Predict the structure.
Amino acid sequence: MAQTMDFNNLATEMEALAANGVKNDSSRERLLKAAQHVVAELEDPRQAIERTVYATSSTESTGPAILALPNYLERNKYRLPEDVENTAFTQAHKEAPTLYSWFATRPKHLDMFHRWMVERPYRAGHWLDAFPFEKLVAKPTDTPETVIFIDVGGGRGHQCLEIRNRFPNVKGRLILEDTESVIAGAVQVPNMDVVEVDFFKEQPIKGARTYYLRSILHNWPTKHCRTILRNIKSAMAPDSFILIDDMVMPEVGADKVAVSMDIAMMMGFTSEERTEKRWAELFDSVGLKIDGIYKYDERAHSSILAVKLKE
């Protein structure tokens, strides 16, 4: 817990600083500690995580990519090549063929990335607050063997855990899919199977009720997204659907948080945050259609797109 802060004394010191400047190193140190106490008193847990993650990783990962972006755009004539090995990030980090390979050799940064994915500090809500999971996914006829939810590329399983915590009476099996190194750190969830899967290859589990992708497609250019979606489509039953948990950007007036994420996707993956029109075009190109959109964060435009097979 943060120490109790005397804000009146701090205000007095800050006024003196504004009038006279920093007198010596001890004065500077005192003010820095005071400012840290103020931050600790006022920020909420999400803001604390956001500050910590950015402070410890951004200067090493995205910082160099930001500096490389102007030259990268000029070199590519201000067009994105849709090549995950030709990005501003890989231009800045020449030792890594992709952003993911950079993370793979840096366990500390990879762990911070997974913690970031769990908390998502730029999002104010949770997708289960807006999406009617019990109504659209769970059915009275389900048994413990019915596969009702597959988290494709789901990290360590926190979405499956949230489903079990919110809906303890829902029957049916949950499945977490990701690469071997990621699922090695999976959390324990009742009636959840863990399966090693590369989503660029065939989806091994056929006919599941839902296939859920959280912040997956915004990390990949369109041609790669088509491959991911086609692999899932080939496994779908007529009543299956895909849940895409991503931003649905407005055509104009997007919030700066969403715009900054759009730039980050361009910088790291030559990808984008998509508008509803761009999402519809992507789905249509692989024989899918939007069945509904459920927005759960107005500021970040975070939404669930329920996607089904085209008739």
Observations:
- The CA atoms of residues 255 and 299 lie 6 Å apart.
- Strands lie at 147-152, 173-178, 192-196, 210-214, 241-247, 288-297, 302-309.
- The chain has a mean pLDDT of 86.
